[in-house]
Structure formats: C-alpha cells, structure tokens
Write a structure and sequence with these properties.
This protein has one helix spanning 2-15, and strands at residues 24-25, 31-32, 47-54, 57-67, 70-79, 85-95, 103-109, 118-126, 131-138, 146-153, 162-168, 173-180, 185-192, 195-203. By secondary structure, it is mainly β. The chain has one domain (2-203): monomeric porin ompg (Porin), CATH 2.40.160.40. It comes from Candidatus Avacidaminococcus intestinavium. This is YjbH domain-containing protein. It holds the Pfam family YjbH.
Length: 204
C-alpha cells in the first residue's frame, strides 16, 4: 500500500505544477467532505482524482464536470475478501452559492445499483475564517441525513490549504485532516466508519 501511495504522490506532484488544492474526492468518486457529498460540483475544465485505503478496502476514482453544474463520477473498489465492484454517480447543482444563501445540489450515488443506490439533496455554505458547513438528506444511506463542518487554514501559503473536517454521516462520526502535497495535491487521513483511512486527492 505504501509503495502505491508514494507512486501516486509522485505522479500527481509532477502533473500538478501550478495552482492550489480544490474540493476533495470521496471514495465513491464524488466531490465531498469525508463520507458524504457536498453541494459543490467540479468546475468546467477541471477533474478530480483520488486513491483511498482502509484496512478492509482500497478504492480509486474521480469526477469531472461534463456540463456546467453537472458532475459525473466513477470509482473502482477492491474490498478485502469480496469481489471488486464499480460505482457511477451524478450530481447537479440546482442553485449556486450566494452571499446570503447556500449552494443546493441533487444527486444519485451508485446509479446502476451495484451496491445501494442512494439519492440525496445537499446544501453547502462557506463562512468566514475558512469555515464551511454541509448538510443533506435523501434515500438509501442518506435517509437519516448528514452534516459536516470544515475548517481550513493557511500553511506556507497565501491561500487556505490545510484543513480539518468533522462529519456525521447518519450513522458514524468521521473526522479527517488534509494537508498539501505539492501544488494541486492533498493528502488526507482520519477515521471513517470507525476505521482509519488514508487518501490522496488531485485536482487538474
């Protein structure tokens, strides 16, 4: 696992010589916080990639904006002791964020129902001091709702690039720390579903 993480880090650092990190990519492939989607979608002309590891699975995936406000994502999962599977998802921003109102998106995780198709409505609002609040509710694994808080800091930079996140996904409390690795790459580690996880995210 360590060799794979180091190789992916090297590739992402080489491919990302300019700019600053953007939204993280979930293990499902969608942009989001730790285990739940935010209302934000990838900007046109950009795409995100991720590699994630826990004790019981490995996953890699990514997302891309195919139309303004429409993000399509994919992930491939390799669970321990079980067959590999793929997830395809879609998220559409219905209302963009304004000074007074949050961004609002609707989406579907696992469109082909490989594991558990789940629809959702998500809200996201950035606040002062690098804070952002996310919440959502839906069907499937989102039926009990979720809420997440992010706080970003500046680390050797004029922009916010170091962050912490706390999330309740409707079942478990999750938390993570993400730090820059190169210009457009962030490494993340924390606890998700009561298990340690590590991830690399790249935005191009």
């Amino acid at each position: 696992m360590l060799k794979k993480m180091l190789k992916l880090t090297a590739v992402l650092v080489v491919l990302c010589p300019f700019g600053n990190g953007e939204a993280k990519t979930l293990a499902t492939g969608m942009s989001g916080v730790i285990n739940t989607p935010s209302a934000y979608v990838r900007s046109m002309g950009h795409f995100g990639l991720t590699y994630q590891y826990t004790n019981d699975y490995r996953a890699w995936g990514g997302n891309i904006a195919v139309l303004p406000s429409l993000e399509i994502s994919y992930s491939h999962w390799e669970p321990e002791g079980a067959s590999d599977f793929d997830l395809v998802n879609a998220k559409f921003m219905v209302l963009p964020e304004t000074v007074a109102s949050p961004a609002v998106s609707i989406g579907v995780e696992d469109l082909t129902d490989e594991r558990r198709r789940s629809g959702f409505v998500a809200l996201s609002k950035a606040g002062p001091w690098g804070l952002a609040l996310h919440a959502g509710v839906g069907t499937g694994r989102y039926r009990d709702g979720y809420i997440a808080l992010e706080k970003q800091f500046k680390l050797n930079s004029d922009v916010l690039n170091l962050g912490v996140a706390l999330e309740y996904d409707g079942e478990d409390m999750n938390y993570g720390l993400f730090v820059p690795v190169g210009k457009l790459v962030r490494a993340e580690a924390g606890m998700r579903n009561e298990k340690f996880y590590a991830a690399l995210h790249g935005t191009f």
